[in-house]
Amino acid sequence: MRIGFFTDTYFPQVSGVATSIRTLKNELEKQGHEVYIFTTTDPDADEFEKDIVRMPSVPFVSFKDRRIVVRGIWFAYQIAKELELEIIHTHTEFGSGFLGKMVANRLRIPVVHTYHTMYEDYLHYIANGKVVRPTHVKHFIKMFVNHSTGVVCPSKRVVDTLKRYEVEVPMRIIPTGIEVTRFVRSDITKEDTDRLRKKLGLEKDDLMILSLSRISYEKNIHVIVQQFTEILMSYPNARLVIVGKGPYREDLEELTHELGIEEYVQFTGEVPHEEVAYYYHAADYFVSASTSETQGLTYAEAIASGTQCIVEGNDYLAQLLSDESLGITFERDEDFSDSFVRYVQQQIPINPEVQKNKLIEISAERFGSEILKFYQEMLVYYDENHTEIRSPAQTVRKMRVRINSLRNSEDK
Predict the structure, then answer these.
(1) Considering only CA atoms, which of 303, 308, 316, 310 is closest in space to residue 335?
(2) What is the pLDDT of residues 149-163, one digit of tens each?
(3) Which CATH class, in words, describes the domain spanning 2-177+365-411?
(4) CATH topology of domain 181-361
(5) Are the C-beta atoms of residues 14 and 99 closer than 8 Å to each other?
């Protein structure tokens, strides 16, 4: 199958969306499919990149480290036609997303969309939330997603949100997987983690508490910092290590100063992707009070690294942390410190069998297989619901679908 991804966010921009897209591309290619990424130009991108088409873009309003496509529909269409794409997968509701839909419409092929971002959590970035309201988000998303063939939802929270927005196209919950081997890392030794802890200025018996994410308001890191004073009352040897970059860092640093806990909290800045696993392995616990997550890649990475989680919960995380040996969730911001202290006091060891099964569940391999299955269903759904004259690609696709269906029947 020849697949086109349309996204405004891709490396060298670092984000959960970019990581999710690269993971999916790798898995689909491992299974013999061709994946082409149509994305934004970026001043830091390599000049020559295999299977990546970059289209003119500008920095996005209020998110200067993100970009949005401003033109290139004819260019994208010509390349997509030349590549004989069979399905398009959009990963944004803005520039590249609209572009992907227009290209799919001209080629008469299905377009699958992944709803990555809960925009209601980000309205404060636009004129302090005074211009764009939740009702505006609802109508925009309803219009965009309903013009897709089907939508991938990383969690039940996304499904519930899209139903509230009156989205009516087929939906499928497919949690984003991770490359488990990048985090299990049997090659990371105690000497490696001791070296990192020493670099961070931690003593041998210090309790390293890790926060790893983009440092922005909606990640709720201020809740962790505010209640860290209470954790220090029970664990004076606790040290909070905040990894990541973002617009809210200065505010958090000021907060630690106001609370008088600067010596117990440190900000490392952004860490190279290949070094992230070392931080998980060096940490005693991973914490988060974010309520804006749809995919929770960092939580899965922590689990794969063998680091227990104490995080603010939702339906997805309750399912992810289905056994207390992997970690726990708390309900409200104000519950963080009490939940942390109680959990640490219990000293629950990780159950190896539970972790093993969880690693299969969150693996990139499973992620790729589930997405591929959804693609195949959407190809059939599209052909059954579009009666106009078919393109040659559609005719070939329908023949393939029928052949695969016959094969599956024979196998049964």
Answers:
(1) 310
(2) 999 999 888 999 999
(3) alpha beta
(4) Rossmann fold (3.40.50)
(5) no
